[in-house]
Amino acid sequence: MLNWDDLKFFLAVCRAGSIRAAAQSLGVNHATVSRRINNFEASLGERVFDRTQQGYVRTRLGDEIFEEASYLEERLSSIDRKIVGKDENLEGEVRVTMPDLLGQHLLMEGIVAFCRQYPLIDIQISGTVKLLNLANREADVAFRICDTPPEYLIGRRLAYIHRACYIAREFENKLTDSSWLARQKLIGWTDKYQRPIGVLASAYPRFDVQHKISNGDFQLKACESGLGISVLPCLIGDVNESLVRVPPYVTEKKFELWVLSHPDLRKNAKIQAFVRFMTDYVLDKKSLIEGEEYNKNWLA
Question: Which of 65, 84, 103 is the last residue before a domain boundary?
């Protein structure tokens, strides 16, 4: 008889593509995952993965088991959601997922305030851009930057995330010199996203790109330290006293910020209390997120 714990390890490797990545997603040691997969294959008397240089690739048997195990996982998750969805207690665990930059620069202060108001609720945070599966209860609540959320989830758009061009405040007195400004370098993000397009591209000179930094915190630190001009979310740049916007100070509406949960959990008291609290918290900061605070604070 198949053991559900073995199937969980099997599914994790299927989705991650490697033992190490699966171990990270499960929060266990990679040796544990390797041992469980080897034992699983030994119990079946046949391999479910081919070990290749590209990672673990399912065999034909692995494909068959993956299809059945995925269906079983969904049914078990559905039962779990329905049970959890009836919980009327304002205590226990709420699992939340969000991109780390949102957590650090926007949401954490609100989460701390929520925990003080509801001290019996235990918040578990996963800071990642990975889209965790809310149907399988990898998380209960997701803050996502997206245009179209999955149809199986419920939620609301909280704000549009605006971006602007920033430079270190040490250069503020030079920003009126158009020839100096035109010679400044733009810090790129990746090969694909080296320079802005759309509104920002039309509002500024075509800055040459020098350097690429894909980590948000590193990009911010580089800009603060004077490495060049950086395109940053207004919710980060507008409250940073080490930075100023680059004239003509325009913003670009780039992303949508959503809060999402599964409809089966709409009657769970602690989850809905968290969603309501954080919705109010973010809406109170909507003008900052959408780039309106800079005009009030710096251009008045």
Answer: 84
| Residue 246 to residue 186: CA distance in whole angstroms | 11
Q: What is the pLDDT of residue 148?
A: 87
Q: pLDDT tens, 88-142?
A: 677 889 999 999 989 999 999 999 999 999 999 999 999 887 777 776 778 899 9
Q: Which two tokens stand for residue 77?
A: 């998750």
User: Are 74 and 105 contained in the same domain?
Assistant: no
Give the helix ranges, DSSP H, for the chain.
4-16, 19-26, 30-44, 60-84, 100-102, 108-117, 178-182, 199-203, 216-224, 234-237, 269-284, 286-289, 293-297
| Whether residue 154 sits in one domain with residue 9 | no
Q: Look at strands 154-168 and 252-261 and give their pairing.
A: antiparallel
Residue numbers of the domain that contains 53: 4-84
Q: Which residues pair with 98 in a beta bridge?
A: 127
| Displacement of CA 94 from its chain's centroid (Å) | 17
Q: Are residues 125 and 9 in the same domain?
A: no
φ/ψ region of 166 (left if φ > 0, alpha if ψ in -120 to 50, else beta) reads beta
Residues 286-298: pLDDT tens digits?
A: 999 999 977 555 5
Task: Report how many helices (DSSP H) and strands (DSSP E) the chain contains, helices first.
Answer: 13, 11
